[in-house]
């Protein structure tokens, strides 16, 4: 048996009420499972490479990104108008439209709809908003059985884990991990980790639920104000089954998913799958304009903090996100630490800027799980300035006194040192000389987090400042 098959899957962050999530501790456990960490890194980097290949096939790629960003900026500036237009047109199509200010209200609206129809079973396609609102847990507390129909989401549901990625929810699992879950929950054949067999096992288990469900639920990738339609993009067709097979179709969607016109939809469809998976288009791009014949359709528009973000000059741009996951696929921290280490519904770079808006104290450590390399910003299809927003969150956390004691002590000391150029230069020169003579165990200890997985580079013979002063400044050659 290979190391990957034999190695136990590392679990996610340990959630302790409202205490700050220790992403570092969970990340270290994921990294320690070296076979899983390597597999995860390679899978996601492969998606990044496929994205780049698709990008190079479209000469107007950067123009598409700029256009998508502009459309989103315009829409956010006129969000109320477009939401009202969507409501008017959706109602004209026979759709019931509801407004929810937060997760609690959204969950209650959906529960009431289901109870009015005496619905006891709900088949559900993938919805990050549902995860954000903890909808499934709420419905199950109200004796409504929820079955996730997306393969990755179903795996995570059966294993009692949250999704680890917005597009590929179980990407951190190996096929052996999935096999073990299915043996326990779906009576799968012991030791059979063939991917086709596992997918068929889940499909055979889920189809009867779909055929007999009282209600179906989907999320929404886009809402088109001009037509009052909901657009859902999937690769498995499960959203179509969830929406069309049961008599009742409920859509739960964030208010930021609105776009003005049908002509704008084409821009985002061209960008979404290419950015997410490196494929030209999703297998199913479904356009729900009204209820099926003899059926009923409800759309629940959810705020849950989005209006607050809309009013923030610093963090408004995060509402442009189309949930493609490209920033996760390229992020070196996410690829090596796993999505569950963030302890939040939204992980990776987008999670670093979204999660603190829900609970600043609980997720105060997340904005520091970044190297600020800017790769996330470079691949974002709607050009969100992700790394700049991560840095802005660090500033905000410092202003709100949400830094840990160790960070406050370190930042205070560094601030004083950097405020005095002579002291800083002396410290650098002294440090470089001392490092050359210190024993290895003194430099690489528990206090040196950077040295746990890498060696420090050898100190240069002289600092840039001294080299510049000697070769240019003192000779008056400042422009060379």
TrEMBL record:
Residues 1-20 are annotated as: Disordered. This is Electron transport protein. SUPFAM superfamilies: alpha-helical ferredoxin (SSF46548), NagB/RpiA/CoA transferase-like (SSF100950). One of its GO terms (molecular function) is metal ion binding. It comes from the Bacteria. It comes from Commensalibacter papalotli (ex Servin-Garciduenas et al. 2014). Pfam families: Fer4_8, LUD_dom. Keywords: 4Fe-4S, Electron transport, Iron, Iron-sulfur, Metal-binding, Repeat, Transport. Residues 311-339 form the 4Fe-4S ferredoxin-type domain. One of its GO terms (biological process) is lactate metabolic process.
């Amino acid at each position: 048996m290979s190391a990957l098959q034999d190695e136990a899957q590392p679990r996610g962050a340990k959630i302790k009420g409202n205490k700050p999530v220790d992403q570092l501790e969970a990340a270290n456990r994921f990294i320690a499972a070296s076979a899983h960490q390597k597999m995860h890194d390679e899978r996601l980097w492969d998606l990044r490479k496929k994205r780049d290949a698709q990008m190079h096939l479209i000469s107007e790629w950067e123009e598409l990104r700029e256009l998508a960003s502009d459309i989103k900026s315009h829409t956010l500036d006129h969000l109320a108008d477009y939401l009202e237009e969507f409501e008017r047109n959706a109602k004209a199509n026979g759709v019931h439209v509801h407004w929810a200010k937060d997760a609690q209200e959204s969950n209650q609206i959906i529960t009431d709809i289901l109870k009015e129809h005496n619905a006891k079973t709900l088949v559900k396609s993938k919805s990050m908003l549902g995860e954000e609102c903890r909808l499934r847990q709420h419905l199950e507390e109200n004796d409504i059985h929820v079955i996730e129909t997306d393969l990755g989401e179903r795996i995570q549901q059966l294993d009692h884990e949250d999704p680890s990625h917005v597009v590929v929810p179980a990407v951190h699992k190996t096929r052996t991990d999935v096999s073990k879950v299915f043996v326990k929950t779906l009576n799968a054949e012991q030791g059979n980790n063939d991917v086709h067999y596992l997918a068929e096992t889940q499909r055979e288990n889920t189809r009867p639920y779909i055929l007999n469900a009282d209600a179906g639920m989907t999320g929404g990738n886009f809402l088109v104000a001009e037509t009052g339609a909901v657009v859902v993009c999937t690769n498995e067709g499960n959203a179509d089954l969830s929406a069309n097979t049961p008599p009742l179709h409920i859509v739960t969607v964030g208010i930021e998913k609105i776009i003005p016109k049908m002509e704008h939809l084409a821009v985002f469809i061209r960008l979404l799958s290419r950015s997410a998976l490196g494929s030209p288009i999703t297998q199913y791009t479904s356009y729900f304009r009204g209820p099926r014949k003899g059926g009923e359709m409800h759309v629940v528009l959810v705020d849950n903090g989005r209006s607050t973000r809309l009013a923030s000059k610093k963090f408004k741009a995060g509402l442009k996100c189309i949930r493609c996951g490209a920033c996760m696929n390229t992020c070196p921290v996410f690829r090596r630490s796993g999505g569950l280490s963030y302890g939040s519904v939204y992980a990776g770079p987008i999670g670093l800027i979204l999660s603190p808006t829900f609970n600043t104290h609980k997720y105060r450590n997340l904005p520091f799980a970044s190297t600020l390399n800017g790769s996330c910003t470079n691949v974002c299809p709607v050009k969100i300035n992700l790394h700049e927003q991560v840095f802005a969150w660090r500033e905000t956390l410092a202003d709100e006194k949400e830094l840990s004691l160790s960070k406050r002590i370190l930042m205070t000391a560094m601030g004083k040192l950097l405020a005095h150029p002579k002291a800083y230069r002396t410290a650098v020169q002294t440090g470089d000389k001392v490092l050359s003579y210190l024993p290895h165990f003194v430099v690489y200890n528990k206090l040196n987090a950077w040295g746990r997985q890498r060696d420090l580079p050898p100190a240069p013979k002289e600092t840039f400042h001294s080299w510049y002063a000697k070769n240019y400044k003192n000779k008056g050659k400042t422009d060379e």
